[in-house]
Design brief:
The complex is a heterodimer of chains A (362) and B (224). Chain A is of the alpha+beta class. Chain A contains nine helices and 21 strands. Chain A folds into two domains: 238 residues, P-loop containing nucleotide triphosphate hydrolases (Rossmann fold); 117 residues, RNA polymerase II/Efflux pump adaptor protein, barrel-sandwich hybrid domain (OB fold (Dihydrolipoamide Acetyltransferase, E2P), Beta Barrel). Chain B has one domain: MetI-like fold.
């Protein structure tokens, strides 16, 4: 049996939906798993149960061949013995220690020589050598995040648990640190579980993801799969993004980027921090459908396509097209009638450059 | 001024503070972090000396450490001496009498340490004991100083318990406050005035220290 983390447990809270976790996550090769869901869905609690900071009422948690928790056998391995790195949402840096002291804090049992080497190593890895002597209160949010990460990885944990690692940062810092974090996690090759409610982070960071709604695991798969093919309306509502395809930036000019998706070229707003490989993301309500031969519009993207499926969602209809890649549009029932669309009809899909979200991937 | 009485008082107050630092820390830790539902029972017992008349406390102590009691017999078998009307007996009484003045500031300081920091320490592999010494104590220094100084100051001025348990033995159990009482009984107002002034200045200085160190940690004055 391949090494994996398995969770089968239940935890209830007064006045909140109880959490039912049934989840397996491979440890080998090391990968990044995203726990994705709206706030209050229970994803942080699941992470805390994994860290040993909270106990479920029923069930088991195991890590490889180690049993970490078993309610019936009354087994609870304390957080100290799980040898993992846990990073809380607000970083929880020790205010009475310098950056260096924070990183060295958990390195008990090492000689001062070894400690120094290990601290220098992670300081270098996270590019924070220059702030080694400062106290946490003197640091910016981004610096605090790096110090918390450095502290968590200094002990060479077997598993890394990150609770909303980027949510405490302002938007520009977040985009940059998100990419840095992905690079770091790949470099470290430590199995990691990351909690987030931000779909751009999920796409950039995750190798696989699980969507959690009201304490239940509703869908698992690669982030691209989950976002582009939500299994039910719950997941679709939570992820809120219907088209996710791989693309390559071929040109950036006048703040516009040209992205090649298969044989189709799209125009998107360029943003800094992008390299050539991206995920192209589109919300269905941003896509309009036109009959072939319609007049010029302000939208930058016009794709020829064929209607594949038509799904009624009350007042709205979800239409999936094949434009060289699968594309989903959301239109009204009356528009569907007026355009007399059926499966197999030829249409043009239009969307503005600003509606195309580009997310880095590697 | 009677320097012997001052010496006895300072010795008693210092030893009481030191003992309360050692005894108070585990009690305060337990009170701050225990999730036991009947915890308030223990909290009330610790706070009892705040409201109990010193004579009542003194009376029960006298009975509890007397030569007829198990504690008194144990002590006599161990040392050959008896506890009532001795400095050792007085020390035990003072420790109990000042217990809330040490434990409450300690416990408040421990409770104010952010739970997330403690959890971070655990996930970094430090045991609860290591976390206590490396994280909780360093972040609670203001509360520790407050507790030690308050119990010192409180012991300086105790009267009823000393009289009940210690008696009034020159050089052994006669403290400054009893000295003042004796002076007044003997109509020696001049001596009483000097000694009172000394105690006033000393207590004020000690409290100045507490408020200067930290104005937010628990004190006998209500929090702002």
């Amino acid at each position: 049996m391949a090494a994996e983390i398995t969770l089968h447990f239940q935890k209830t809270f007064l006045g909140r939906a109880s959490i039912t976790a049934h989840f397996r996550c491979p440890l080998d090769p090391p990968s990044v798993t995203i726990l994705f869901g709206p706030s209050g869905s229970g994803k942080s609690t699941i992470l805390r149960c994994l860290a040993g900071l909270e106990q479920p009422e029923e069930g088991t948690i195991s890590f490889g061949d180690e049993l970490w928790f078993d309610a019936t056998a009354r087994v609870t391995v304390p957080p100290q013995a799980r040898r993992l790195g846990y990073m809380a949402q607000d970083y929880a840096l020790f205010p009475h220690h310098s950056v260096e002291g924070n990183i060295a804090y958990g390195l008990t049992g090492l000689s001062s020589q070894e400690k120094k080497i290990r601290v220098d190593e992670v300081l270098h890895l996270l590019h924070i050598e220059s702030i080694a002597q400062q106290k946490p209160t003197q640091l910016s949010g981004g610096q605090q995040q790096r110090v918390a990460l450095a502290r968590a990885i200094a002990r060479r944990p077997r598993l890394l648990l990150l609770d909303e690692p980027l949510s405490a940062l302002d938007a520009p810092t977040r985009a940059q640190l998100c990419k840095d974090l992905r690079r770091l996690l790949t470099q470290l090759a430590i199995p990691s579980i990351v909690v987030t409610h931000d779909w751009t982070e999920a796409l950039t960071l995750g190798d696989q993801m699980a969507v959690i709604v009201e304490g239940r695991f509703v869908q698992t798969g690669t982030p691209q799969d989950v976002f582009s093919r939500p299994t039910d309306a719950d997941v679709a509502r939570v992820v809120g993004i219907e088209t996710v395809v791989k693309g390559t930036i071929t040109e950036m000019r006048d703040e516009l980027a040209t992205v090649q998706v298969g044989t189709v070229a799209l125009t998107a707003i360029a943003s800094p921090n992008l390299e050539s490989d991206v995920f192209v993301c589109l919300r269905a309500e941003d896509v309009t459908l036109e009959l072939a031969g319609a007049a010029e519009t302000s939208a930058r993207n016009h794709l020829k396509g064929t209607v594949r499926t038509i799904t009624s969602l009350g007042a709205l209809v979800q239409v999936t097209l094949d434009c060289g890649f699968p594309l989903t549009a959301l239109i009204t029932q009356s528009a569907l009638r007026d355009m007399t669309l059926v499966a197999g009809s030829d249409v043009r899909a239009a969307f503005k450059a600003g509606a195309v979200h580009l997310i880095p991937r590697n | 001024m009677n320097w012997t009485a001052i010496w006895v008082t300072c010795k008693l107050a210092s030893l009481t503070s030191i003992a309360l630092l050692l005894i108070g820390l585990p009690i305060a830790y337990w009170l701050a972090y225990s999730k036991w539902r009947w915890k308030f029972l223990v909290e009330s017992i610790v706070a009892l000396p705040l409201v109990l008349p010193p004579t009542v406390l003194g009376f029960y102590l006298l009975v509890a450490i007397g030569p007829q009691s198990p504690i008194g017999q144990f002590y006599t078998n161990l040392t050959g001496y008896t506890l009532p009307f001795s400095f050792q007996g007085l020390l035990i009484a003072s420790i109990l009498y000042s217990l809330p003045f040490a434990v409450q500031p300690f416990a408040t300081a421990f409770e104010q340490v952010d739970r997330k920091l403690i959890e971070a320490s655990w996930t970094l592999g430090l045991s609860k004991l290591q976390t206590f010494f490396k994280l909780i104590l360093p972040l609670s220094t203001a509360g520790l100083i407050t507790g030690v100084v308050l119990s010192f100051a409180h012991t300086l001025g105790e009267f009823g318990v000393v009289l009940m348990v210690g008696g009034n033995i020159e050089g052994v159990t006669r403290t400054v406050s009893i000295e003042i009482y004796d002076n007044v009984q003997a109509l020696d107002y001049a001596a009483a005035a000097t000694t009172s002034a000394f105690l006033l200045v000393m207590s004020y200085t000690v409290l100045l220290l507490v408020y200067a160190v930290n104005r937010r940690v628990w004190s006998v004055w209500p929090q702002k």
